[in-house]
Write a structure and sequence with these properties.
Helix content: 40-55%
Strand content: 5-15%
CATH class of one domain: Alpha Beta
Order of helices and strands: EHEHHEHEHHHEHHEHHHHEHEH
Shape: globular
Structural class: alpha/beta
Number of helices: 15
Oligomer: single chain
Strand order of the largest sheet: 2-1-3-4
CATH architecture of one domain: 3-Layer(aba) Sandwich
CATH topology of one domain: Rossmann fold
Largest sheet: 4 strands, parallel
Length: about 425
């Protein structure tokens, strides 16, 4: 039987393509990617975030990828192929880009899966990877130390915009005012991502806080619902069936943990690897320096939020302390110890209702998500956790029905608390 070399047929994104190719990326993080893409646009890349969310994307993916593949992979691959088939892009001048964490799950195999799916109809389209784990060397975007620093600050600003928007939107008196402020803030942040201006995080975050604090809001008490789980499904409106929009429609306040928590989680895991598994101590030392800087910035951002009366992001050292109550920090497959840590942090900061978003085919995430929920409930009996499965066969109606059951319990408890305060 003849052996076919798959690598020889793989198109590579070269330096010459930089000025002539459009690069498409999936819409995993609506706030963040719009800001982070601006950093690469300044380096000469023509990047576009795909915002399509219809069911046709999943149907398209199922034509090219086995249905046992994890749901985030289906969403990403389907969104790319759907876009390439739309006629909006020239396949001969288009590349696709995905981010990879390099963890011990099938996310590290997205690039081969994507290449195989594209080979049937768009074999000429290069696949790029943005990662910091040594995957896909020589076929990714240029990321130097200066760019890394910009990306880190961009994540802090996007986290701030996301959190402030969620804290204001359910309570706005003037319909649409929060969207207007959000768009203005994103435009402002993008304008700062040149030179050293982006490092002036105190000035930038202060302007964001001032802008959102001017939104007229009611004092109504509403159900707060935290969202944890696998990183793609937690943030992507395509993957989680528009979870945040649904919660707004149900008169609730979504509480979504910061992306920087996941970034710091990945960094801490590398530091822990040196202690637990005797990995390279010099690399761990470098990661530790980065971690200390990010933690310093995070804590100053937290103080600024507190001073203006907004609910601040979680202190990452506090997340680590909370994780130790449930799960050892050596457990890092999927989102590992981060999921129970976020559950406990949400509960202790007043968000007692939590949705754990789990994609089909994500075995490590099911274990540390659903499995850790029981341990969290053992610590806090009144925590209201509901795991929601997202997969190709799950209907939006069934997902929303499960959410409505959880919200019914949440509203009863809120009414009891409000009644108790009146007495």
């Amino acid at each position: 039987m003849q052996t076919i070399s798959y690598k020889k047929a793989t198109p590579v994104f070269t330096e010459e393509m930089k000025s002539t190719y459009k690069i498409l990326i999936p819409n995993m993080l609506p706030y963040h990617f719009e800001i982070l893409c601006e950093i690469f646009r300044q380096k000469g890349y023509d990047i576009e975030v795909l915002t399509t969310e219809d069911r046709a994307i999943i149907d398209e993916a199922l034509k090219h990828v086995h249905n046992d593949t994890c749901y985030p992979a289906l969403c990403v691959i389907g969104q790319f192929i759907d876009a390439l088939k739309s006629g909006k892009y020239d396949p001969d001048k288009t590349a696709v880009l995905i981010t990879q964490s390099g963890g011990g799950c099938r996310a590290s195999n997205y690039v081969p899966l994507l290449r195989r799916a594209l080979s049937a109809e768009f074999p000429q389209v290069p696949v790029l990877s943005l990662n910091f784990s040594g995957l896909e060397k020589g076929n990714g975007l240029e990321v130097d130390l200066k760019t890394l620093l910009k990306l880190a600050y961009g994540i802090f600003y996007a986290d701030a915009v996301m959190s402030l928007y969620n804290q204001c939107k359910p309570y706005e008196k003037i319909v649409g005012q929060t969207e207007q402020v959000r768009d203005e803030c994103i435009a402002y942040v993008k304008s700062t991502l040149c030179g050293r201006k982006c490092r002036k995080y105190k000035t930038i975050v202060k302007k964001l806080l001032v802008a959102f604090s001017k939104i007229e809001r009611t004092n109504e008490k509403k159900v707060k619902v935290g969202i944890v789980g696998e990183i793609y499904v937690k943030y992507s409106p395509l993957a989680n069936s528009g979870l945040e929009k649904f919660l707004y429609a149900e008169n609730c306040e979504p509480v979504v943990p910061a992306l920087m928590d996941f970034v710091m989680y990945c960094i801490v895991n590398n530091i822990n690897d040196a202690k637990l598994y005797n990995h390279n101590k010099l690399v761990a030392f470098a990661y530790n320096l980065v971690y200390k800087h990010l933690l310093k910035v995070q804590r100053k951002v937290i103080r600024m939020f507190q001073e203006t009366g907004f609910e601040p992001p979680h202190d990452f050292e506090e997340l680590r302390r909370l994780a130790d109550k449930v799960l050892h920090q050596g457990v890092k497959m999927g989102e590992g110890w981060l999921i129970p840590a976020e559950m406990l942090a949400l509960y202790e900061s007043g968000t007692e209702n939590i949705v754990c978003a789990q994609p089909f085919g994500c075995l490590p995430n099911h274990i540390v998500g659903k499995g850790a929920a029981r341990a969290v409930k053992a610590l806090h009996e009144d925590v209201n956790i509901v795991p929601i499965d997202y997969d190709p066969s799950a209907t939006k109606v069934n997902q929303e029905n499960r959410l409505k059951l959880m919200l019914a319990t949440a509203r009863e408890r809120l009414e009891e608390k409000n009644a108790g305060k009146k007495i």
